[in-house]
Amino acid sequence: MNRREFLKLTSGTALALAGTAFVAGRISRDAPFTGYKGDERRRAGRLDVSCIGLGCLPMVGYYGGKYDKKEMIALIRRAFDKGVTFFDTAEVYGPYTDEEWVGEAVEPFRERVKLATKFGFGVEEGRPKALNSRPDHIRRAVEGSLKRLRTDHIDLLYQHRVDPAVPIEDVAGTVKELIREGKVLHWGMSEASAASIRRAHAVCPLDAVQSEYSLIWREPETKIFPTLEELGIGFVPYCPLGRALLTGAINANSRFSENDRRATLPMFTPEALPQNMRIVRLTEKWAKRKDVTPAQFALVWLLSQKPWIVPIPGTTNPDHLTDLLGAANVRLSAGELRDFEKDYAGIRLVGHRADPFTESQIDK
Fold first, then answer.
1. Mode of pairing for the β-strands spanning 86-88 and 114-119
2. At the fourth CATH level, which superfamily is domain 3-360?
3. Cα distance between residue 158 and residue 116, in whole Å
4. 93 is known as an active-site residue
5. 93, 96, 213, 238: which is the annotated catalytic residue?
6. Using CA atoms, how far apart are residues 52 and 313, in angstroms rounded to an integer?
């Protein structure tokens, strides 16, 4: 699809969706869940996607383990068969491997899905932990992502982290040029402050902002939600399951291998976990009330917050994938949200969500 065809399609979609309102409440669960084709879709800015996407980072061993390429490609295709049309990756995942697998997986149905990827780390320069959003780097990163994703356009391109060495106006201007060239259709930012979002949006309108957000980390509600709502920008929460804490798969005695990201996070230390089990028990309590699994409830809570939130849970397990997508058919009413907040007010979580180095690269 070229840029002109894209504009025709999106303008038609916008007209079709005009006046659509979000209504909180439970969708019927009488029939077994087989996917949500035809059910609720969401708008992240001007981007039309399934209400739940798939985060593909865990497939390259982010939480430990080594996964088979064929099995992960099959998992991505299974997600599409069940109605997922939004897939999230990044050049730094692997690096490169994750984009390659996603590109191969979606190639048979590329025009029916939206691909999100990211630039912002010095992968091309051999420094994958260093921030780099220089215009020349952005262009190299995009060309590499296009090849690995086997496509001629990126549906949603994020700046992975704000680079304090490069004015955000220069970043936005470079992405604006890429949009004019048809290589990028929409753009967004990850872990950006409200001030940076406003500055970037003034140069090239943003469609989505991605940040960590779940029942164990709610800072975006006060830091950026008012700005996103004012500017009409969608929100894409990563780690919506609290890095599996909210699923019940982790207990007070859980320990993590050196190659598991959670081994470095203060919230998952042996000292913090026993106290953080309170949020697990609260999630389980409400899951029973809504007749869903704890993992589903974590997503149901997110989906019930705002109509412009599109969570991207990650998994490497086909059965877990089916479970997660079941959350698409349940909502919390306004009254239930109020009741939940009363329960949640008694929770005191221990430990920060990020290690000091990671925190140092998050825009304040």
1. parallel
2. NADP-dependent oxidoreductase domain (3.20.20.100)
3. 7
4. yes
5. 93
6. 8
Q: Which helix (H) or strand (E) holds 196?
A: helix 194-203
Please, which contacts does 263-266 make with residues 24 or more away whose CB atoms are closer than 8 Å? 264/355, 265/351, 265/352, 265/353, 265/354, 265/355, 266/351, 266/352, 266/353, 266/354, 266/355
Place of tokens 């010095």: 122
One pLDDT digit (tens) per residue for the chain, 364 residues: 444 344 334 333 333 333 322 222 223 223 333 444 446 799 999 999 999 999 999 999 999 999 999 999 999 999 999 999 999 999 999 999 999 999 999 999 999 999 999 999 999 899 999 999 999 999 999 999 999 999 999 999 999 999 999 999 999 999 999 999 999 999 999 999 999 999 999 999 999 999 999 999 999 999 999 999 999 999 999 999 999 999 999 999 999 999 999 999 999 999 999 999 999 999 999 999 999 999 999 999 999 999 999 999 999 999 999 999 999 999 999 999 999 999 999 999 999 999 999 999 999 9
**In the chain, where are the structural domains located?**
3-360
Beta strand pairing status for 121-122 and 127-131?
Answer: antiparallel
Question: Which H/E stretch holds residue 324?
Answer: helix 318-325
- Chain position carrying tokens 């990850």: 190
Q: Are 157 and 175 in contact (CB under 8 A)?
A: yes
Collapsed DSSP state (helix, strand, coil) of residue 126: coil
User: Looking at this protein, which amino acid is placed at residue 99?
Assistant: E
Task: Read off the DSSP letter of residue 30.
Answer: S
- Determine the residue type at 10: T
Residues 41 and 48 sit within 8 Å (Cβ to Cβ): yes
Compute CA distances 131 → 29, 60, 143, 236, whole Å.
46, 21, 18, 21
Print burial letters for 243-257: b (CB count within 10 Å at least 16), e (below 16): bbbbbeebeeeeebe
Q: Give the Cβ contact number of residue 4 at 10 Å.
A: 9
